[in-house]
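Task: sequence in, structure out. Protein: BlaI/MecI/CopY family transcriptional regulator.
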Amino acid sequence: MPTMGPLESRFADLIWSREPLQSRALVALAETELHWKPTTSYTVLKRLCDRGIFQNQGGTVTSLLSRADFYAMKSEQFVEETFDGSLPAFLTAFTRRKKLSDREIAQLQALIDQMGRDGHGD
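Result:
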């Protein structure tokens, strides 16, 4: 699974929120938003392209993985590696220190109900 560090994630967010965009425009944006030198931007862009997250074809940068898909994969990997793939174990650990609001509980219940109706439950 492709990975990104915190600075790479900020750079990726620039792309995801504006794609498609010209690589020169991306470099200028990173200079303004992140205070990066052009060489840094091109290096990070190449790294993220090499990892299969983005592509730079003809000077136009687009994503190969959407933001939602990338973070879904990252979350799934975390639960798999840390909690043997058990979402209930993850939620138990997560709610040990952070209590869910009534709204969050309702959102989770609606998600569970929807998954049951769509046949995604096991």
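The helical segments are 6-16, 23-34, 38-50, 67-83, 87-97, 102-117.
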